Amino acid sequence: MEEEKNPVPEEPQSSEETKSPEEDKKAKTSWQTRKEGWYDKIPLTLKQLDIIVGVCLTLLGLTFLAICLDALGIFHLFG
User: Fold this and answer.
1) Which pLDDT tens digit goes with each residue over 23-65?
2) Is 53 left (phi over 0), alpha (psi -120 to 50) or beta?
3) Is 19 exposed, middle or buried (0-12, 13-18, 19+ CB in 10 A)?
4) How far apart are CA 4 and CA 9, in angstroms?
């Protein structure tokens, strides 16, 4: 006898997938809408923006470390 293959039942779609674009816009807060407007003006990919943010945070951390070391007298940056 041939074995019957049971098809995998499809999972029900989440409510986010079934929303129309109009409903999606209504669900967004004004902050999200404004932020997405800023991203649309920048001709960079999300990965590139993440790299820029990471580099800036690293530089900020190094600046903080240099200030702390200078205050402790371990590293004299400003003579």
Assistant:
1) 666 677 888 888 788 878 888 888 998 999 999 999 999 999 9
2) alpha
3) middle
4) 15
What are 57's two structure tokens? Answer: 């945070």
Q: CA angle 62-63-67, nearest 5°?
A: 115
How many residues make up the chain in this entry? Answer: 79
Residues in contact with 40: Cβ distance below 8 Å, sequence separation at least 6, in sequence order: none
Helices marked H in 1-79: 15-18, 21-27, 30-41, 46-72
